[in-house]
């Protein structure tokens, strides 16, 4: 069974798909996606604790395997208006566009990371229960100098 919260499955579930010219035109060009998370008020710290415990190790393993080049996360210093509010932005640089849309870790890899599947599944369910919104934004760098 593939990880439900795996990058490839999340991308497919949210309708994000490679678009001609969206960012990467060559398979070897890095593909960058920003993942935004908006939690219910008062639950941001629980969300990030569960993210660190259950999802970040998956991302680290995918870095070890070479599919992901880097992962970083930020949070805003101050509150925004409710319609524009987000609690965490995780930026993932994939090795290529094909790596961004490839399946996540297989069942054997997941068992190695999380032998207690029931606890993992319960905690991942909780992580998504406390989300109000989640969106993915593939980005590309623009040259500002001609």
Based on the model shown, name its key terms.
146 residues; alpha+beta; 4 strands; 5 helices; Alpha-Beta Plaits
What is the overall number of helices? 5
Specify the overall morphology: flat
Oligomer status = single chain
Work out the number of β strands. 4
Structural class: alpha+beta
**Strand proportion:** 15-25%
Which CATH class applies here?
Answer: Alpha Beta
- Average pLDDT number: 86
Q: What gap, in angstroms, lies between the N and C termini? A: 48 Å
CATH topology title: Alpha-Beta Plaits
Describe the sheet with the most strands: 4 strands, antiparallel
Query: Spans with pLDDT under 50 lasting ≥5 residues?
Result: 1-24
Helicity range of the residues?
25-40%
Number of domains: 1
Order of helices and strands: HEHEEHHHE
Explain what this protein looks like in three dimensions.
The chain has five helices and four strands. It has 146 residues and is an alpha+beta fold. It has a single domain, classed as Alpha-Beta Plaits, CATH 3.30.70.100. α2 crosses α5. The longest helix has 21 residues. The radius of gyration is 16 Å and the shape is flat. The relative contact order is 0.28. The N terminus is likely disordered.
Summed up:
Helix content is about 35%, strand content about 20%.
Secondary-structure topology with pairs:
Elements: H1 7-13, E1 31-39, H2 44-64, E2 68-74, E3 88-94, H3 97-100, H4 107-113, H5 117-129, E4 131-139
Antiparallel strand pairs: 1-3, 1-4, 2-3
Helix pairs in contact: 2-5
